[in-house]
Structures are given as C-alpha cells and as structure tokens.
UniProtKB/TrEMBL annotation:
<feature type="binding site">
    <location>
        <position position="210"/>
    </location>
    <ligand>
        <name>pyridoxal 5'-phosphate</name>
    </ligand>
</feature>
<keyword id="KW-0662">Pyridine nucleotide biosynthesis</keyword>
<dbReference type="InterPro" id="IPR015421">
    <property type="entry name" value="PyrdxlP-dep_Trfase_major"/>
</dbReference>
<feature type="binding site">
    <location>
        <begin position="131"/>
        <end position="134"/>
    </location>
    <ligand>
        <name>pyridoxal 5'-phosphate</name>
    </ligand>
</feature>
<feature type="binding site">
    <location>
        <position position="207"/>
    </location>
    <ligand>
        <name>pyridoxal 5'-phosphate</name>
    </ligand>
</feature>
<dbReference type="GO" id="GO:0019441">
    <property type="term" value="P:L-tryptophan catabolic process to kynurenine"/>
</dbReference>
<dbReference type="Pfam" id="PF22580">
    <property type="entry name" value="KYNU_C"/>
</dbReference>
<dbReference type="InterPro" id="IPR015422">
    <property type="entry name" value="PyrdxlP-dep_Trfase_small"/>
</dbReference>
<dbReference type="GO" id="GO:0019805">
    <property type="term" value="P:quinolinate biosynthetic process"/>
</dbReference>
<feature type="binding site">
    <location>
        <position position="232"/>
    </location>
    <ligand>
        <name>pyridoxal 5'-phosphate</name>
    </ligand>
</feature>
<dbReference type="GO" id="GO:0043420">
    <property type="term" value="P:anthranilate metabolic process"/>
</dbReference>
<feature type="binding site">
    <location>
        <position position="103"/>
    </location>
    <ligand>
        <name>pyridoxal 5'-phosphate</name>
    </ligand>
</feature>
<keyword id="KW-0045">Antibiotic biosynthesis</keyword>
<protein>
    <recommendedName>
        <fullName>Kynureninase</fullName>
        <ecNumber>3.7.1.3</ecNumber>
    </recommendedName>
</protein>
<comment type="function">
    <text>Catalyzes the cleavage of L-kynurenine (L-Kyn) and L-3-hydroxykynurenine (L-3OHKyn) into anthranilic acid (AA) and 3-hydroxyanthranilic acid (3-OHAA), respectively.</text>
</comment>
<comment type="subunit">
    <text>Homodimer.</text>
</comment>
<feature type="binding site">
    <location>
        <position position="262"/>
    </location>
    <ligand>
        <name>pyridoxal 5'-phosphate</name>
    </ligand>
</feature>
Length: 405
C-alpha cells in the first residue's frame, strides 16, 4: 500500500482549500483532526461563516426593522445576493435560479406546476434507489391527484430508464431523478435522459442534492424543466440550510399553476399590498414567503467560496482525489466498490459493500477518527470532498478500512 509519506507529498503538490473550513477534532486514533468523509451528508463549516452571521445579528440589534433597507446587506433583496453565484454553480441563468425553502418542500412546490397527470399520461418515473423523501413526495403527489401511488410511481434501475422512456414514454407525466444517486454515487447522464424524457412529451426534473457542488452542471443548456437541491451537503451551508431551485426560462411568465404568497409578487410593487399578485416572469414567481435571513447567510458564504474557486477546478481535484482513494481501496481484498469505476459516471463519493455498515462506520470513527456514513444494512459511503479533504485523509481511510473490515 502507498505510504503515508507519499500521501503527504501528494497533499503538498495538490493542497485544496482545507484552511477555509473547520475540521472536527478526532475522538480516537493517532491524529488530532478527523478524516472527514461525510460531506455528502453534512458539509463542514466554513471559517468565515461565524463573522458573517455575527454581522447580521449586529445589524438586527442595531437597526431593528430598519434593517430591511438599512442593513449592511439589506434584508429585503438579500436572497438576490445569492442568485448569480448559485446560478453559476448549476449552469443556469440568474432568472432561472432562486434560493428558498428546503429541498422536499421545493419539490412539492415544483410538482404543483410540473406534475399534471392527464388521460393516459399519469406516471412518475423515479430511480429504484431514490432517496426516501423523494419517493414519499411523489407518492403523496399521486395520491393528491386521486391516483394510486403503486400504479402511478414507476421505480426503475438507472440502466432501465432510457428503454422505458422509449417504450412507455407516452404514459409518463414526470421523470424525477437524482443527478447523483445518494446510495451508489452514480452520476446519471443528465443531458441524455433529459432529452429522452422531453422527446416523449414528459416533464423532466432533477433532484441535485448529491450533484450540486460535486459535479459541474449546465442546466440551462441541458434543458430540464426544473431542478432542486439542498445546500447542507457539498455546499457546506449548515444543517437544514436553505435550498435552491431552477425553473427553465421557457416556463417563465407562463400559465403554469403555482402556489403563491407575498414573495411571489414582483418586488417593486410588493409593498402596495394589493390583493392580487403580479408575479415576475422569472423563477422568483415560485417564491412564497419572505426568506430566513440568518439562514441565508451561510448559503451566501458558501456559494461565494464556489464562485471564487470554480467548479471546474474543484472537479479536476475531485477526480484526482477520489481516484487516489479508489486505488488504495483496490489493494484491499475486503473492499467491494459499488460506485461506477469510470470517473465520468460518478462524483466524489465511493460506496462500499460491507457486512455491517453501522458497526464498521462506528469503528472507523471511534478507533481511527475516520468519519464515514453508513446506509443500512450494508453500504458505507466515503466522500473525499475536493474543497477540504486531503490525500492523507484518503490514506487514513484506506488503512483504517483494511484494519477493521
Ligand atoms: C439529502 C436529500 C434529501 C433531503 O431532503 P430535505 O428536504 O433537505 O430534508 C432529499 N432528496 C435527496 C435525493 C437527498 O439526497
């Protein structure tokens, strides 16, 4: 196996941005910091976020309600500070992107517009290994429309999706898939599936929870109808952070049904407090409530980090780092990698099949300070995050795995 010395040398040559983050201390093992591989579940705290939050608290203390207009970053248009960097991150126009609510709530708000079963076209296609929240969301949408969710929701293996669309596409109302699968780490061919779905007349939406901040995205060009993501995984915006949505510009200003509130009306006339809304012809028409400023602050810190470093550069480092971890794991007979071996078909996460995921993950953490994530019963996920993970972390993970598996 590659030596610790080699791992340290790789870190010197390709250092990443660990200094921008607070790496949790290790409880056990030979090193003071954890080797943190759970950024696909909860990303680490950017150092800058504390000061940024204190500044908002100070403005609130100093200004009270005047902060809406007089804060250093006025609260009224605050969400719009996030729009351009978030749009760059997902390859969208600013008019197509807004940061609001949480992921599953946004999926529901988007399905109000984009899941409209009619006649024979009632089905929703998801992956067989879809994240449970997405499965519950689409099943409840089917029920809401008076349909039997067991009949309306079709669960497919990822390699079956294109064939199914080709043969049964006219029965599909909505294709809603994870861009990167949370369990296997597989990156789907988003442009190809999007084109195939749209070609048969289905609406296509993407859940980018595990894709955003992990792989480069070009949503505007790829042309899905909508997308949604959360900000607490690879975006490092903190537990339960405010999420993001994309609605392609071809749907702006049109007649799609939406649920509205006072943030659905255009900003310039909002405070005329008129009884009837005047929605803007942008994705902001999908907003409902005034946003939680203190919760938007960490998202702002986060998207600025991505904006500065650039997703393309991060992806290159990600491919090197995950490839290094893979090469170390390949030397260990007990390591069975479930994730596609082609770097173009995965993000940074490697999923391993193990005997008892919970127990192994616990031993890796307690005995070695290596933080992974267990998916019961038999999958351990290890995500080297290009912003803050190191080659030395990967070396520690492989060594610990070899000892414990
Ligand atoms: C993390 C994740 C969620 C979480 O949903 P919340 O609404 O943020 O609690 C949903 N779907 C997928 C695919 C996820 O990976």
């Amino acid at each position: 196996m590659s030596t610790e010395e080699e791992a340290r040398k790789l870190d010197e040559a390709d250092p990443g941005h660990r200094g921008l983050f607070r790496v949790p201390p290790a409880e056990g093992g030979a090193y003071p910091e954890t080797a943190y591989f759970a950024g696909n579940s909860l990303g680490l705290q950017p150092v800058a976020v504390r000061e940024e939050l204190l500044a908002e608290l100070d403005d609130w203390a100093r200004l009270g309600v005047e902060g809406h207009l007089a804060a250093k970053r006025p609260w009224l248009p605050y969400h719009s500070l996030l729009t351009a960097p978030a749009a760059r991150l997902v390859g969208a126009l600013s008019s197509e992107t807004v940061v609001m609510n949480s992921l599953t709530v946004n999926l529901h708000l988007l399905m109000v517009s984009f899941y409209r079963p009619a006649g024979e076209r009632t089905r929703i296609v998801i992956e067989d290994s879809a994240f449970p929240s997405d499965s519950y969301a689409v099943r409840s949408q089917a029920r809401f429309h008076g349909l039997d969710p067991d009949a309306a929701v079709v669960r497919l293996e990822t390699q079956e999706i294109l064939d199914f669309l080709a043969t049964e596409g006219e029965t599909v109302a909505l294709v809603l898939l994870g861009g990167v699968n949370y369990r296997t780490g597989e990156l789907l061919d988003i442009p190809r599936i999007t084109a195939a779905g749209r070609a048969v007349g289905a609406v296509v939406g993407w859940d980018l929870a595990h894709a955003v901040g992990n792989v480069p995205l070009r949503l505007h060009d790829w042309g899905p109808d909508f997308a949604a993501w959360c900000s607490y995984k690879y975006l490092n915006a903190g537990p339960g952070a405010v999420a993001g949505v994309f609605v392609h510009e071809r749907h702006h200003g049109g007649g799609l049904p939406r649920f509205e509130g006072w943030w659905s009306t255009e900003e310039s006339t909002r405070f005329e407090m008129a009884p009837v809304s005047r929605p803007p012809s942008t994705v902001e028409a999908w907003q409902v409530s005034n946003p939680p400023i203190l919760a938007l602050t960490p998202v702002l810190t986060s998207v600025r980090i991505f904006d500065e470093i650039g997703m393309e550069a991060l992806r290159e480092r990600s491919i090197r780092l995950t490839g290094y971890l893979e090469s170390l794991l390949d030397e260990i007979p007990a390591a069975e990698v479930l994730t596609p071996r082609d770097p173009a078909r995965r993000g940074c996460q490697l999923s391993l099949r193990v005997r008892d995921a919970d127990d192994l993950s616990r031993r890796l953490r307690v005995r070695h300070g290596v933080v992974t994530d267990a998916r019961k019963p038999d999958v351990v996920r290890i995500a080297p995050v290009p912003l803050y993970s190191s080659y030395h972390d990967c070396w520690r993970a492989a060594r610990a795995f070899e000892e414990e598996a």
